[in-house]
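Sanity check. The docking grid for uridine-5'-diphosphate-glucuronic acid depends on where the pocket ends up, so I'm generating a full predicted complex first rather than guessing from homology. Inputs follow.
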Amino acid sequence: MANILCIGAGYVGGPTMAVIAQKCPEHRVVVVDVRPERIAAWQSDQLPIYEPGLEEVIRATRNKNLFFSTDVDRHVAQADIIFVSVNTPTKSFGQGAGKAADLQYWEQTARHILRCSASPKIVVEKSTLPVRTAEAMERILNTAGSGHCFDVVSNPEFLAEGTAIRDMQAPDRVLIGAHDTPSGRRAMQAIVEIYAHWVPLDRIVTANLWSAELSKLVANAFLAQRVSSINAISALCEKTGADVTEVARAVGLDRRIGSRFLNASVGFGGSCFKKDIKNLVYLCEHYGLVEVAEYWDHVVKMNEYQGRRFVSNMVSTMFNTLAGKRIALFGAAYKAHTDDTRDSPALGVCRALVEERAEVVLTDPRALENARASLGALAENVVFEPDPSAAACGAHAIAILTEWPCFAELDYQAVYATMAKPAFLFDGRNLLDPRSLYDAGFNVYPIGKPPLVHMGEQRRGGGTFPAP
Ligand code: NAD
Ligand code: UGA
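Predicted complex below; grid placement will be based on this.
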């Protein structure tokens, strides 16, 4: 039996530890956090995050071998293995602002572990960190003369929100990096043994510490790059009359390329893609690799362009003014099946439309509360409406910003009947069938496809393709 502790009870710490507790019933797993309200929520029926399948796993493990607590000191003292999954946002101040990772929470954790430890421990980096952060961690832990040995292991997390439980239960791979020393190898083996409870050994990949740390940033950069690549092509499709879905399908059927992560959209969001690429860019700059830094920075620039392009298309299509027009935004979460609105492209669109003085109505099945908090003072200018049909009632336009299945299930003929005319639908996720919407009466503007327009004079971007 091992005492496993996780510091940080967020989108990673909660789900990952719940699955470890489920799969390793002989281990005792405790998750701690400095935010008492978050811990109280984990102990209640109203979990602090929405994640499909999470409730069932929590119900099966909580207060059996999974515990949540704010008593960091006590649980650090008792732990054999400590996973650290605190937030590592982009630094917003000082040197490296806007690019470098803000490691203050990380370092506080290291010092906390040192202060409260009276025995050797394995410390596992679960948070996403710049390469060689383990070195700093080791220096803090091992040079302060505590007399205890701390082994630092990197075990970056690859789960995606919305599929976190499935990703944890059946991961493509688990990556574990450690030093090639006797104690490093022992520490690595201890972590391998946890995952080996349910992950086939050929999916547990071991590496040196720096490779493991870097691989996490690279995986996110590659995924984000695919989204930016297809979004760049969506702009060209709109100019030429090509259809980005058809292009993505044709290209993705090449097995060397693959079909996933080629859905054109209003842009990628979430707390990690942008932050991790910026972090990669900062690292490259630090090592003088200017061209490499610029290359990756363009993935983020393309993403920002796509969001701006979407809004500017809305404005120009709707007769160059949105002032006073009711616009229903379908979706606040950065993707479907999560309540997370961190860096959501939907809120980017929302902010831009408020600036245009539109009357913005935001609807989302799970994320309205977080959206309100994320928007801050701007929330006063936004109507939050849980029912999408009610949000669209009287609106001049609908913009689909999150690919929630419930938005695809609406009766758009009925929705159209309640809207101001001409009624526009901007599909930022290519969620809906443009032809049926057009037949229902909408002027339809998908991403990377020819618009379907009832008024002969409306064309996007001066395209020359024929009217339907
Ligand atoms: P989060 O903000 O949801 O959770 C982090 C938690 O850590 C917060 O509840 C915070 O209160 C707590 N915390 C901060 N400092 C603390 C301290 N000193 N002691 C105790 N608790 C402390 O963040 P997250 O989304 O879970 O991400 C955590 C890390 O995992 C980040 O580095 C992120 O890049 C990485 N990651 C996230 C995802 C994801 O899908 N969200 C996936 C893979 C990796
Ligand atoms: C991503 C990675 O997929 C995870 O492997 C990683 O662990 C995680 O980041 C992290 O480090 O935090 P996540 O951000 O939760 O996971 O969600 P994704 O499914 O990767 O989507 C990211 C964004 O890209 C979303 O806004 C999504 O809508 C968008 N996206 C994704 C597209 O616009 N098109 C696509 O084809 C795919």
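Relevant for the grid: The pocket of uridine-5'-diphosphate-glucuronic acid (ligand 2) is lined by residues 128, 157-161, 220, 223, 227, 261-263, 265, 268-270, 272-273, 334-335 (CB under 6 Å).
Also worth noting: Residues 461-468 have pLDDT under 50 and may be disordered.
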